Amino acid sequence: MDWTEVTVAVPAEDAGRAGDIAQMVVPYGIYIEDYSHLEEETWEIAHIDLIDEALRNKDRSTAWIHVYISPEENPREAVSFLRERYEAAGIPNEITTAGCSEEDWINNWKQYFKPIPVGEKLLIRPTWEEEYDAQGRTVLHLEPGLAFGTGTHETTRLCLEFLERFVTPGCSMLDVGCGSGILSVAGLLLGAREAAGVDIDELAVKTAVQNAERNGVAERFTGICGSLTDKVCGQYDIVAANIVADVILELTKEIGRFLKPGGVYLMSGIIDSREADVLAGLAPQFTVFARREEKGWVALAARANGD
Question: CA 307 to CA 73: how far, in whole Å?
Answer without folding.
Answer: 41
